[in-house]
Design a protein that fits this description.
- One of its GO terms (molecular function) is DNA binding.
- InterPro entries: Cro/C1-type_HTH, DUF5753, Lambda_DNA-bd_dom_sf.
- There is one protein chain.
- By secondary structure, this protein is of the alpha/beta class.
- It is built from twelve helices and six strands.
- Strands 3-2-1-4-5-6 form a six-stranded mixed β-sheet, with helices on both faces.
- Helix 4 packs antiparallel against helix 5.
- The protein is elongated.
- 31% of the residues are buried.
Length: 294
């Protein structure tokens, strides 16, 4: 049975409270986020995510922050430490953690951030994005990956991917903008019936006001995004920084430095500009779906 995401936003009240207090202490110390990042030898993005309650605050990081902010009050330090421990314990209650046996750490981190994102922009070179996959398509991809061996592991991964799709519906749905290489429509995953159903699902989902799908045809030639898929996650909080998850031959990597993120934002802008319009893209998807029906 599909697991429902009963905790759609893992940025708990406690995490927010801790982040707010750390922001206040940083500002009281007269430090910018850049200066705080230098003190912790991390990125500005990490400081932003801590202060917005979007990530767990490890106790060593908390200690380093309090030292950088010159917080000497032992009672305050103890209270913030207790708050961090409690917030981290609550955060581990996210629905995806029950599937820890079939999820890599990077994927769990991605789901947690996806649950909080307001917008996702993605380029996909070979596969339909996970948020738009049908159950049969997910299952075929999972079996082909050979990463999960047993039927139970495969089914759990399918459930995770389908549970993620709840972010596209509800009171505050995620805004998804996907640019798909034409290869995504031509690469058969499963049998022709699976592909037909998948392409028809793309058509139906593209009608949602919070979903934009564009196809980048082969005829547009070489382009900067052809070297691999990536996802840019955007957040609605003031001063929140975008984060990128990029795939490479050895796995997935997080990118959060402003220059790196800006590079992928430019890549996506170039891809969507080169791609067919959403209306033209639907016509192409519809034509490919009919080919599988024949």
């Amino acid at each position: 049975m599909l697991a429902k995401s009963t905790t759609p936003n893992p940025s708990t009240v406690l995490g927010r409270q801790l982040g707010d207090e750390l922001r206040r202490l940083r500002e009281a110390a007269g430090l910018t986020t850049n200066q705080a990042a230098e003190a912790l030898d991390c990125t500005k993005g990490k400081i932003s995510r801590i202060e917005n309650g979007r990530v767990a605050v490890r106790l060593p990081d908390l200690t380093a922050m309090l030292h950088a902010y010159e917080v000497a009050d032992p009672e305050l330090r103890e209270r913030l430490g207790a708050l961090a421990r409690t917030a981290n314990r609550r955060r581990r209650q996210g629905w995806w953690n029950q599937y820890g046996s079939v999820l890599a750490d990077t994927y769990r981190d991605y789901i947690a951030l996806e649950a909080m994102a307001g917008e996702i922009r993605t380029f996909q070179a070979q596969l339909v994005p996970g948020l738009l996959q049908t159950p049969e398509y997910v299952r075929a991809v999972t079996v082909a990956s050979r990463q999960w061996q047993t039927a139970d592991e495969i089914e759990k991964f399918v459930q995770v991917r389908l549970a993620r799709q709840e972010r596209l519906t509800g009171d505050s749905p995620l805004h998804l903008w996907a640019v798909l290489s034409e290869a995504v429509l031509l690469q058969q995953v499963g049998d022709p019936q699976v592909m037909q159903a998948q392409l028809e699902h793309l058509l139906a989902t593209s009608e949602q006001p919070n979903v934009t799908i564009q196809v980048l045809p082969f005829s547009r030639g070489a382009h900067a995004s052809m070297f691999g898929p990536y996802v840019v996650l955007g957040f609605s909080e003031e001063a929140a920084l975008d984060v990128v998850l990029a795939d490479n031959p050895t796995g997935s990597i997080w990118l959060e430095r402003e220059a790196e993120v800006a590079r992928y934002q430019d890549l996506f802008d170039a891809a969507r500009t080169s791609a067919l319009s959403p209306m033209e893209s639907r016509a192409v998807v519809r034509r490919r779906a009919k080919e599988h029906r024949a």
